[in-house]
Amino acid sequence: MQDSVDRGEDIDVRRAAIGATVGNMLEFYDFITYSFFAIQIGRTFFPAQSAYGSLMLSLATFGAGFITRPIGGIVLGVFSDRVGRRPAMLLSFALMGGAIVVLSLTPSYDAIGLIAPIVVIVARMVQGFALGGEVGPTTAYLMEIAAPERRALVVSWQPTSQQIAATAGALVGVILSRTMTADALQSYGWRIAFLIGAACLPFGLWMRSTLPETIRHPSDPGPPGEGSGHLATARRYARLIALALMILASGTIATYVTQYMTTYAQNTLHVAPPLAFATTLVSNGLGIAGALLGGWLADRFGRKPVMMLPQLVTLLLTYPTFLWIVHAPSAMSLLFGFGLLSLIGSLPFSAFYAAFAEGLPQVIRGGVFATIYAVAIASFGGTAQLVVTFLIHVSGNPLAPAWYLLLAAIVGLIAMVAMPETAPSKVVPPINQEAS
Q1: Could you tell me which residue, 338 or 227, shows the higher pLDDT?
Q2: CA dihedral in degrees (37, 43, 47, 49; nearest 10)?
Q3: What is the C-alpha to C-alpha distance for residues 162 and 218, in angstroms, rounded to an integer?
């Protein structure tokens, strides 16, 4: 690997990692918070003859944000490889900030009619474009500033920041649902959650504007012999990319089904909103610990063991956990059950992020990572909540989310077994040698 070139000798790793992940956290807070308030947003912008119809329209708009994520991944990811990581991260953050302000301030359907849902859908698509170009450059940046023996731990701040964002969104939901009446939460409370994220935008822009660049020669198209740009180089890593797509599909289904638990607990299990938000809060809080622990373990024991073993445990625990929760939807079952799945399920993906980033050369790292991540998210994350809601509706079985999670876990585990080991402390596989 190009450690001496990637990392740079004058980078304060801790400060740079904080600057990158604070921006990442704020972007994911803005994007994910929508799912926590899907019911309220549906009633505000998508009035329908039934609660199910309103919710499905709201979730479809949530999914609209995923349509533009592959476009953002390609455009901003390639931009980060050619121009630099910092400009790409600044641009994605600015786009996200503008979209969240528009979304939070758009009047309701009752106030301005059809214009309201159109504006909301456009804002979600801009958010999707911005977030699609966020993950690749940020992950590449974190890997490039880290010492080889600490790459997985530093990279783990990418999924960790996402969990922090989701936890913050759930915490805001808990506070709002406990301090406001249902009517107030419906009327304007959900807007407060978005405006909190918008208030943090100047801080995030300042932090990112001070980041050091990790690409020393941004205008250099890459080493000789790598073909005509990203596509030609990426073809050499087709097997790694295909495996990564399978793992990301598995992970994003688990992530967005987990984020749906606030709505699932209220709409399907009929628990009170405070407990529903608390469930998501606890699950995401434990996910933070799992993501960091996964990175720490991956630096010590290698990427593959930390991917495969927790994934297998998750596969074995998913159905029994849902069975317990559905038949006894109490605070104990919800908090402990979903919390345990979140803790164990978050372990493999810090190791995976490091393995995928290490397996790609710097010249295509940001673009390929962003594109594959965005394609997986758009195809499977954007539809996960719609699929789960549909399965519950047509089957009448509240265990439907478990079926979808089991299928996703199996696909992810198969791909993890086939992934090459890329940890510097282990035997370097041929794919890593090509990246050097």
Answers
A1: 338
A2: 100
A3: 28
Q: Which residue has the higher pLDDT, 18 or 137?
A: 137
Model confidence over 13-69: pLDDT tens digits?
A: 888 888 888 877 877 787 677 767 777 887 788 776 666 666 677 667 666 777 888
353 within a domain of the structure (yes/no): yes
Torsion of CA 68, 367, 17, 218, to 10 degrees: -130
Q: Are 272 and 328 a contacting pair, CB within 8 Å?
A: no
Per-chain mean pLDDT for the chain? 83
Number of domains into which the chain is organized: 1
Q: How far apart are the first and last CA of the chain?
A: 4
| CA 272/CA 293 separation, integer angstroms | 32
Tokens of 120: 């909301």
Examine residue 254 and state whether it is found in any structural domain, yes or no. Answer: yes
| CA distances in angstroms from 208 to 72, 275, 319, listed in the order given | 19, 36, 42
- Geometric angle at alpha carbon 391, from 388 and 392, rounded to 5°: 85
DSSP per residue, 389-404: HHHHHHH--TTHHHHH
Helices (H) and strands (E) in the chain, counts: 26, 0
Q: How confident is the model at residue 303 (pLDDT cuts 50, 70, 90)?
A: very high
Of residues 186 and 2, which shows the higher confidence score? 186
**For the whole model, what pTM was predicted?**
0.80
pLDDT tens digits, 106-126? 998 888 888 988 898 888 889
Q: What dihedral do alpha carbons 393, 343, 153, 131 form, nearest 10°?
A: 20
In this prediction, residue 10 has a pLDDT band, given cuts at 50, 70 and 90, of low
What CATH number is attached to the domain comprising 67?
A: 1.20.1250.20
Expressed as residue numbers, the domain containing 72 is 8-211+229-435
Closest CA to 197 of 33, 39, 20, 17: 33
In a domain, 344, yes or no: yes
Unique residue bearing structure tokens 């994350």: 381
Using a 10 angstrom Cβ sphere, with 0-12 exposed, 13-18 middle and 19 or more buried, the burial of residue 296 is: middle
Rg, the chain, Cα only: 21
Give a yes or no: residue 415 inside a domain: yes
- Among 120, 102, 100, 123, which Cα is nearest to 30's? 100
